[in-house]
Structure formats: C-alpha cells, structure tokens
Predict the 3D structure of the following.
Amino acid sequence: MDKNFLVIENISKSFGENKVLEDINLNISKSEFFGLLGSSGSGKSTMLRILGGFEKPDTGRVILDGVDITNLEPFDRPLNYMFQSYALFPHLNVFNNLSFGIKENYSQKEIEIKVREIAELLSIEHLINRRIKQLSGGEQQRVALGRCLIKKPKLLLLDEPLAALDKKLRSKTQLELITLQKKLKITFVFVTHDQEEAMSLSDRMAIMKNGLILECSSPEEIYENPKSLYTANFIGIANIIEIYKKDENFYSDDLGINIKLNKEFKNTKTNILLRPEKIKIQSINNLKTSSFNSFCGEILEKSYLGSFTRYEIKINNKIISVLDQNFNSNSNYNFPKGEKVICSWESESIKILED
Amino acid sequence: MKNKLFEKYFVFSPYFWLVLFFFIPLAIIFKISISVSEWGMPPYQNIFLFDNGFKINTTFENYLYIFSDYYYIGSFINSLILALISTFFCLLIGFPLAFYIATSNIRLRNILLVLVVIPFWSSFLLRVYAWKIILQNNGILNVILLNLGITSEPLQLLYNQYAVIMGIVYTYLPLMILPLYGYLNKFDLNLIEASKDLGLNRFKTFFKVILPLSIPGIIAGSLLVFIPVVGEFIIPEMLGGSDRLYYGKILWEEFFINRNWPGASALAFSGIIILVLPIVIFQILYSRWSQKNEI
C-alpha cells in the first residue's frame, strides 16, 4: 500500500488577518478512508477546499500520486468533490447529472453504459429520468456520489457527506459508504464535525482545532489514548481528573484518593483521563474502598439507555460519569438515585494527558 | 368582519390599478383610433351619433392608412432593430456586471448596487444631454482624440444611430442589471465549483451551467429593456440624426404636429398589439415550460 498517496506538505492559509490553516502536514495512504474532524472554524473545510482546488494555499504543496497538484485548476485535478449541499444541477435530470463530467470523453453509447453501471452500483436505476427536485435527500446524496464516482477519481473528497440526512438514514448510509469505499478502493477524504460519524467511517482521522492538527491516528487510538485535553473532551465522554505528586504517589484532591499509574511519570502535576465505561460500579455492601483507584460516591443522576446505564456520580464537588453495561436483564443490577456506590478501575485504564 | 372583507378585496388592488391605468386608457386609444378625423377640438368625430336616430360612426381607414404607408411600418421596424441591438448590448455589458455584483461579498455588493442605481437620482434628460456635450464636435471626447493626435479633425459622433444605441444602452443598463442580479443572487455558487470539479473549464461551465440557469433573469431583464426602447422618443430625438426614423418620433409627430389623433392612436394601438401579444404568448408558454422543468 502506498503510504504517501496523498501528501499534504506545510499547507498554510490566511483570509486577511485570519489564519485558517497553519503548517498542515498529512500523509494519506492509497484506498484509505480518512476523516478530518473539527468544530466549525477549525479549518477543516478550507483544507478540503484546498485539496479540491477551490482555494489556493499561501504556502505548501499538495502531492497526489506523485504529482504536485497545488497549482492545478479544479478541472485539471484527477479527483472529485462531493458538496455538502450536493450541488446537483437543477436544470438537468438524474441521467444528465450523472453523465455531466464524462459527456465529452465518451460516445453516447458508452455514456449510457457507464451511467447504468453507476446507477446499479448505487441502486438508483429507477430514478434515472427524474428531475433533481423530485428526489429525497438520500436519493440526492446518491446521485451526487454517483456523479463523482462515474469519473473514477483517484481521490474523492466529501464535505460533511451525511450531514443533510436524517438520523436513521445516516447510520444506514454510513455502512453503505464504508462498503462502497472498500469495494472501489478509492481514497476517500471527508470532513465532519460529528465525532461519531468520524469514528465510524474513518480508517484514520485527524483532529483539527484553530487551523492545527492536534492528533492523527486511528479512531481507537484517539479514543483510548488521546494526547491532549481537547481531544479527550471532544471525542466521547471524558472524566478529566487533575492529579499531583504527593510523597511517592499521585493524589487527586477532587476525589480525595491516591491514584496509581501503571507507568512512570516524571512531572509532578498532570491531568488524567478516565473513560466512563472503564469504571466499575459496585454496591457498597460488597466491598470496602481500597486506598488506590477507587472511591465511594453518591449517585446523582441516572439515565437508562437500554444497552447500558449512565450514572453521574458525585464525590466531594466532582461529578464522574460512569457507563455501566446492563449484562443482566435483572433490574436489580441498576442502582437507584441517591445510593452510595463504590467506583473502581484498573490502573491501565488511566490515560495521562500530556497537555 | 369588515377587515376580512377588506383583506379579501385588497388582493384585487393590482388588478384595479391595471384596469384603471392600462386597460381603460388602452380602450380610449382604441376608440380614438377607429374614429373619423376632422378639423376641430378634439380632432375627431364622435363614435356614437344621435342627431338622426342612433348611428355608429366608425372607420378602419386609419389602420389601412398606416399599414399602406412604408413610412410608418419602416419606422416601427427601425425601432424594433434598435431595441434588439440595444438589448443585446445591455445584456452583453449587464450580465458580467450583474454576475460580479451577485458573487462579491456583501459590503462591496451593496456599494456596487448603489452605484448601479445612482444615475436614477439625476434627471434622465440631463444625463442624455450630458452625452451630447461629450460627443459633440468640440466636445470632451473629440478634444481628447484631437490632442492625442488620433484624428486630425473632429469626428461626427453625434446625430447618428450609433449615438442613439449608445445613449439607450447607457440609460437602460440598470434595468438589465437589476433583474439579472435578482436571479443571479440566488445562484448556488457551489454549482459552478461542482461543474469545474467535474472537469469543465470556465468557458464550458458558463455555457452548461451558468447560462441555462440564468435564463429567467435574462428574459426578465431583456423584456424590461426591449419593450420601452421600442417606443423610446427622447433619446433618438436628442442624440439621433435624420438618418433613421423611429416609431416613438413618428407617434409624437402624428399626435402633436400633424394633429392626426385617430391615425396616431391607430399607430399606437397597432404597436402595442404587435409588440405585446407575442410577448404575452411567449411568457405563458415559457412559464408553462419552466414549471414543467422546474427551473
């Protein structure tokens, strides 16, 4: 696999005084499904538009499959861009939208064959003669996708590909998009502000903030071992606990307990991350609190979510979130509000946040 | 209850306006056009005569007279050609301007829109007269050309059909830009980017995406320029020469110089029918077509 299929090198971009991207470097492999995740204003959309050729970077280069495409016009780039609004041509029907980009290079017969192929792939054969306004959101999304894929691009850029769909359709389309990408082996780069979407679609993803890439790794790695406080909070639910060195151990003022780390740490003060599903919750009758990695708190809030129950547990002035999986259908396993419980975790579950 | 009644009939107020200021005057013109002309005030006979029992006193001679004389038909054709050429140039200049205004950022856009409208704040006559000063033999343009040595003697820029076209394009340009801007303003710029992304260069993108989607705006702007230019009187009168006669001028002369009210009315009424009927039919067909195609 070509690890340097798409190379983004020292890309910077400002709009007037406003620095949107600062020295972005990314290497994306061939056939990778790559996500750019960030809140609005993080620069992710500008990055995608630079890849599409709609914006020129102030500095840096974009190299696709060994060719420097930084200064190429959009119509000269061997890639396609799927717009968030889909940008389907309202004056053309589905057939003419699909064939829009291949009209000049093929005969009428070839075009018909290609359109039929792509329509079958996306199961939109029955829509071929419809006008764009007669399509639902999901159908429009497929036509937009088909219009790009029919050109067999080396790289497909997707701007918030699922944002315009309703929730139920979104999760279905997510799976379809992954299947399609694996089948076609086209490199996909997409941007999203939705962390769930980024996690479920991406092979690897980059977290962006204020024009910088904070982290770039697989979703598992970013969830389990985030490097920064921002990422830890941005992805999933995070319990952040401040600890400092006291004698030989680390101590948390918030929880009033000693924290045992499973690896050496030199600094005297840091934040640690404890994901809510890593915390075990037990009845106070069963156990005594041990001095390390466990505390006794009171259940403040509880929400039953089917496969698991989310508790907000209060200790001193700190509130810790815990996700407890409902192994047993016996509802006795659920703890009532106000009950005192013991929370504990393995030392391996604690992740040190470096900054 | 009274309010409801008011609301119900309020909807009809545009029609009331139309009837009062369009259909009734039109009917009056038609009535005069089929009257028999005579010397007097008004210079035509009554249609309904009651002296020896009831008698309808009408004639179609005025129409026959107009259509048998190439003087009238020719001037109308001249005006149509003038309107076509002027509309074409307004579109040629107005479209890029409107597109630029519609796609620029909001601050610049507002400034540009004000600049488009600003000429309306000064007198129309004054503005046309200003062109006279610019184009005359010892006018600014000729002085510049002479001093630069481009010509050795002043050019005859005024009093010809080119000066008329220029004056009309200058005057009517905002009427082209504003409706075009109205449509282009709603234009989804992503469509242009999508077209480029799919491999079409700027030129092809213009013809395959921008132009087809601007057709309603182009039609609106063109009609707004074309229709009044056909009857335009002042600009040909001030900037034009004796090389070409135009419909508006002939109409004026028939009414006020020859005092042939029935003939002039017949001319006006024929003009409206010839001009408006095809446009109305076109508009109906076009709106049906665009509804079907959902543009």
Summary: Chain A touches chain B at residues 52-54, 73-75, 77, 80-81, 83, 85, 87-91, 100-101, 104, 131, 133, 147-148, 151 (CB under 8 Å).
